[in-house]
From TrEMBL:
PANTHER family: BLL1128 PROTEIN, UNNAMED PRODUCT-RELATED
Highest taxon above the source species: Bacteria
Listed name of the protein: Prolyl oligopeptidase family serine peptidase
Species the sequence originates in: Mucilaginibacter corticis
Protein's UniProt keywords contain Signal: yes
TM ranges: none
Keywords of this entry: Signal
Amino acid sequence: MNRSNAFLIVLVLCFNSMLCLKTAAQAVRRIPPEGIIINDNDRDELGVGLLQLGKAIDSLKQRKDPFINSLLPDVIIYFKAVDYALKYQEFFAAKDVISGKKLLQEGLERAAALKDKKAPWTTQKGEVVRGYISKIDGSVQPYGVTVPDNYEANGPAFDLSLWFHGRGENLSEVNFIADGKGFTGSMPSMKNTIMLYPYGRYCNAFKFAGEVDVLEALADVEKKYKINKNGLFDRGFSMGGAAAWQFAVHYQDMWLAANPGAGFSETFDFMLKYGHEELHPTGYEKTLWHLYDCTDYASNLSNLPLYAYNGDKDPQQQAADIMEVAMKKEGLKLNRIWGKDMGHGYTKAAAKTVDSLLAIDQAKGKNPPPAEIHFTTYTLKYNSLYWLRLDALSQHWNKARVDGNIKGNTITLKTENVAAISLINQQLPESFKNNRSFDLKIDDETLKINAFKDAELSFHVEHGKWIQGPAIAKLAKRHNLQGPIDDAFMSAFIVVKPSGTSSNALFDKWSKAEMNRFIEQWRAQFRGDAIVKMDTAITTEDMKSNLIVFGDKQSNKFLAKFKEYDLPFIINNTEIILNKQYKYPAKDHALAMIYPNPLNKEHYIVLNSGFTFREDAYLNNSKQIPMLPDWAIIDLNTPPDAVHPGKVVSAGFFGEHWEWQGPTE
């Protein structure tokens, strides 16, 4: 079946399973589900094929040829797909086994071509599967592209439309590669456009490592094809619609236009109305909703053409309903397209309408950087919009807001909960770049600025007043070094495995079990093998990665390197002591924490924790959000379950200089 004919069918079949709702009587089940038992003949045939492809890959690696090395991921994706499916019982139907055999043959064909320094798939038109090596864990990740017939490598740059796929619990790498490399076909009205289908590291609504996957896949496509960076479209449906909302509010200035369909856009209301579950979060859990709740960032959509689609009988219209309310509070109108008499899917008429609207925006081209912006964030993880970057907040996880405009020779900024900013020269409107000097009116002050010739100009608050120059601090929260714990798994990390044993037997058993669980669940949920090194093998080079350390100073020799003042706690054989006043028995309590690594403060050290959402959240993508803040004390007398690693008796955030702030209620 060709992709354009399959488009609507796949939306209905695949995306109707966007969420699997948990009932009180339903046990938390395995995701991905357990696959079928394959017969010995198939297992042997797949094993032989893997052995052949593995030898071919090893032979190509030994060539150490730059051309071959640059394209090896396009071969390794086939090996990884079948290897994972065979090793972890992720063939879910008999057809998947057939697909696995075909993928091994495709991989061998690519390897043979690459051996002769040929790569015909790089100039292939239509659907093509490609791969890249992720900076997070060194894993090879697949993505799909649809290349139009009129694209030429030596021709003009093409626009690019991302399409985010829907939820698929059976979406192994085998199925992703074999079943269409993206779950949809090229949109016929989007002329001169390459389609990109990120895998998103499986089924996490393109959050955390899935979010990074999108950015890495996009960067890889921009290396391999001529892409117009001012012609990017943000599109998706169901779980993919949730991703389109998230990327619209967090990366608004990337897109020419956005088109989210169905999905979810926040947590509480969606779970109440669609998931039929009333959530009762702790104070820190509710605070952490600010990371991915798109309603909190509605002001950022001020300058983005956006078209939300829903079937008129689809309960998931809730996502656009609540975004419409949030946008209205900002004076923004949400453009909505409806599928008549349609549930969770696209009608042909609505698809045509959406495509025609996007084609109009495509013909006009991306709007230039605006003179007026309204930027909201709660974290420096998402800290920039066009010509404005936030470098420091007064208080993380409180609403930070900047309303700015440029008129004549004056930039006016009104700020809330902001301690440092930068103006980005390249992103300023063309009419302003020629000014030799300008006035910066920021809150109640006016600063006279000489010629703006540098790449950026920075300003910060000092003694209650704005002054020119970057904020200088030995240790401070900043972009990509702001927490919470889950942020450590959005860039390169290494698990530091203890070589010894703690004298606290309950803690030792728990810590090692949590480490093994994390390694297993990282593979299952984020589709990569975590890099693991013994505590005695950590090098200076390893300090360039986030270090995920399990154990205590007795069991983990790497922790023994730190002096008491290096990290904001004291742990001895009997007590865990926080800020010299909060004390917990070490025999049955554990500290989970993120903090800048004292040996390289550009990166994190994490204690006794992997990503913090657990099995219960796998059942519903809107609940795949951080469950622990910057630090937490775990009572180990309560065993871990599908929500928590034990009983969380105290937890909180560090301050803007990573100083102690006390527990969060």
